[in-house]
Amino acid sequence: MARVTVEDCVDKVESRFDLVLYSAFRSREIAEGAELQVDRENDKNPVVALREIAENKLNSETLEEELIESLQTQIDVDEADEDYIPLIQQESNTSDQNSLSDEEVSQESEEPEQKQMTEEELLKAIEDNLNDKKNTRRSF
Question: In terms of pTM, does the model score above 0.85?
Answer without folding.
Answer: no
